[in-house]
Specification:
Elements: E1 2-8, H1 14-28, E2 32-40, H2 47-54, E3 59-64, H3 70-83, E4 87-90, H4 93-100, H5 104-107, E5 110-114, H6 125-136, E6 142-145, E7 164-166, H7 174-183, H8 191-199, E8 202-206, H9 215-226, E9 234-238, H10 244-253, E10 260-264, E11 278-281, H11 290-297, E12 302-305, H12 310-313, E13 321-323, H13 328-339, H14 346-356, H15 362-376
Parallel strand pairs: 1-2, 1-4, 2-3, 4-5, 5-6, 6-7, 8-9, 8-11, 9-10, 11-12, 12-13
Length: about 375
């Protein structure tokens, strides 16, 4: 089967990694996956495209103007027809909007994975795109969500059950992911980050620096928790995005410049979890976050907000600490407990990881997607 995966990528984050893991599993099963990378005209090779190339995946660079026009749609359709796939697999709002509204006879059978919406500010450009994305659901042959809770989304309620499915995200074993980094020559972790984490016990948060990740709230909670415990702790936030400058300003205002570091984007960032005193996820919205699965594979104590599929992965019975989203007091309390040593042990995390190891795998994910393709091709 020939599969054309389509994404408009801003980096190598969760949705991009899911696409890459999935395409590689499909290739290993004898199928022909192609990685269609949509970017603005004039863009050179992106980090996402470089990773796909290094994994031996065929990359189709699709360069189009940023505004959706009939000419842009025609350009995208030409790229699709050049590949002549048996099925299109969309991983983001841009291909959903540009192709989803078209008749099947023009674009071919299409499946889209809904990794999650960001909750954009009303009447912003992103809000408009997300609104159009929701409307496109009615025209696409198959819609996949990554957690059962997402089936409750209002935008999915009008779809017949035969057109909406749940396929949970999965990742390869930790050893495979580390081998991937070595095979494509990824540099060791920056010396300054290694030195920073070696100074004092360090909590680590990983994600795009955007509002839905709740990093401003995390800074406030960390400042309060740090003032209430005797042992010195540090916080390392790994990732890049539009909120970087605002977060840097807030770090200075809270007098945290000596204990909080914005690391920027780091390839293979989850390697830092090997030396982390804890992993923190303060998101206001999520689907099924890969970085949380990675943290579990590293057997790290976890504090996370109860959004998306996170409660399915972590609950009080397993001794992980869940907090309501956007709840400063609750997040402060759990961080304080973690810093005081009142956290789940490595052995407890290991048992959770073992219990979930057969469920959240890239191999299982690939088999379920192939079945979904077959139903619409």
């Amino acid at each position: 089967m020939r599969i054309l995966h389509l994404i408009h990528s801003e980096g190598v984050y969760g949705a991009e990694l899911i696409l890459l893991y999935l395409a590689r599993e499909q290739q290993q099963r004898g199928h022909e996956p192609f990685v269609g990378s949509i970017r603005d005209t004039g863009t050179h090779q992106t980090p996402f495209e470089a990773v796909a190339h290094s994994w031996g995946l065929p990359v189709v660079p699709i360069r189009i103007a940023p505004r959706p026009t009939p000419g842009v749609v025609r350009s995208l359709l030409r790229a699709v027809r050049d590949v002549a796939p048996d099925v299109l697999h969309s991983h983001g709002y841009k291909p959903n909007i540009l192709l989803g509204f078209l008749p099947r006879r023009l674009r071919g059978p299409m499946l889209r994975t809904l990794h999650g919406w960001t909750g954009a500010r009303t009447f912003s450009a992103l809000w408009l795109y997300e609104h159009l994305d929701r409307l496109s659901l009615r025209r696409i042959e198959s819609v996949v969500v990554v957690t059962r809770r997402m089936l409750e989304l209002r935008a999915l309620q009008g779809l017949p059950p035969s057109r909406r499915h749940v396929i949970e995200n999965g990742i390869p074993p930790r050893e495979v992911r580390l081998a991937d980094l070595a095979a494509r020559g990824v540099a060791p972790l920056p010396d300054e980050l290694v030195e920073f984490t070696a100074r004092e016990p360090t909590l680590i948060a990983i994600g795009r620096l955007s509002p839905e990740k709740g990093f401003t709230l995390l800074l406030e909670a960390f400042a309060r928790a740090s003032s209430q415990v005797a042992a010195p702790y540090q916080l390392l936030i790994v990732g890049d995005g539009p909120e970087r400058e605002a977060l840097a300003t807030r770090i200075a205002a809270l007098s945290l410049s000596g204990t909080v570091r914005l690391a920027g984007y780091v390839d293979g960032a989850d390697r830092l979890l090997a030396v982390a005193a804890g992993f923190v996820m303060s998101s206001l919205t999520e689907g099924l976050p890969l970085v949380l699965l990675e943290a579990m594979q590293w057997h790290v104590p976890i504090v996370a907000t109860a959004v998306g599929a996170i409660p399915e992965l972590l609950d009080d019975r397993r001794r992980e600490h869940l907090v309501p989203p956007n709840d400063l007091a609750a997040l402060t309390h759990e961080l304080q407990g973690l810093m005081s040593g009142d956290s789940n042990s490595g052995e407890a995390i290991a048992s959770v990881c073992q219990a979930l190891s057969g469920r959240y795998t890239s191999a299982r994910m690939a088999e379920e997607y192939l079945a979904a393709y077959a139903a619409i091709a």
